[in-house]
Amino acid sequence: EKGGYAHFMQKEIFEQPKALRDTLAGRLDLESLEVKLPEIEANLSYYQNLNRIFISACGTAYHAGLVGKYLLEKLVRIPVEIDVASEFRYRDPLIKEGDLLIVISQSGETADTLAALREAKKRGARVLAVTNVVGSSVSREADDVIYTWAGPEIAVASTKAYTTQLLVMYLLALYLGRAKGSIEEKLYKEMVQGLKEIPQKVQEVLDAEAKVIEFAKKHLTKEDAFFIGRGLDFAVSLEGQLKLKEISYIHAEAYAAGELKHGTLALIVKDVPVIALATQEALFEKMLSNIKEVNAREATILGIAFEGKKELAKVTDDQIYLPRVPELLAPILAVVPLQLLAYHMSVLRGNDVDKPRNLAKSVTVE
Ligand code: F6R
Known about the structure:
- The chain is an alpha/beta fold.
- The protein is 47% helix and 16% strand.
- It has helices at residues 8-14, 16-24, 38-41, 44-48, 59-76, 85-88, 111-122, 137-141, 160-180, 185-206, 209-218, 232-248, 284-296, 311-315, 330-348, and strands spanning 28-29, 34-35, 53-57, 80-84, 100-105, 126-131, 144-147, 224-229, 251-256, 273-277, 300-306, 318-322.
- The longest helix has 22 residues, at 185-206.
- The site of fructose -6-phosphate has 15 residues, from helix 5 and helix 12.
- One of its GO terms (biological process) is amino sugar biosynthetic process.
- The active site is at 361 (for fru-6p isomerization activity).
């Protein structure tokens, strides 16, 4: 049942190219390079006239939502608010008719996410669910549903659900951006072409697994790790640190790189592992100077950037280079080495990878 893999998590990490292909199928017209979302088309006028978008989800799904917020604001130019679902309902949110709540949930059964959905509906907003389970509570109660076609996810740590959730966020932002005329034609075409190629690019990142194992071995006995990035890279850093904590039991924190010097830099000492993401061109120089700050404290740094970014090697100990895609798509690639890092750390430390302590796959209590 694990198809030759040692653990479900490993199988699910390696299934990502297929999960992405399945989630794209029928939604990307490969001839005309247009995004199609019949799930939304039926109520397009509501979507075209949105005042505000809210996103609510838990854990990894929340991290996919953070990328979604960034994309929707950038490409659709509608303000987006995002909360973890366990906070949304209790803050008396200013959501009403004319607004949209997007809930993201692999299982479609997470109690807090379901409660957020009900709260938004009660206040008159429309709810769009992004979920992996047909017939789940979330899918039944939402007004509209876009399924991720990741297939069953068994390991407690979410991997292929996350990357397919990201993919749906891209499709949605491109679709709505097109419908509203808020996205430039050139960027639209570049991104659609990029999405078409993304399953293959993920495969290329998976093929670089050995590099990650090497880094994991070097840091096996460490008890703390830091993930830094800016913009989309910060959102991915949050997912990377959660994965590492959850299954390797290493204390990890993600920081917006520019925020480090406001306190956390005090914890960056000799040999502390720092994973630095630098995929965004406009922020690259700024990231390099943040990396230099941690390098000066003799941290051991793994840098992640697109191929060709040679400067990275001068300020980091190890590097993972991602194949080129339009840079807004970087999160789908950049998270893969972070998933592999958490996985291998967990295996090497002898943990129960698929069933980490204290955690359940589906959290149906609030
Ligand atoms: C982390 C993880 C959890 C879930 C969260 C939400 O690897 O799996 O953080 O993402 O419990 O679950 P769903 O998506 O089922 O609502």
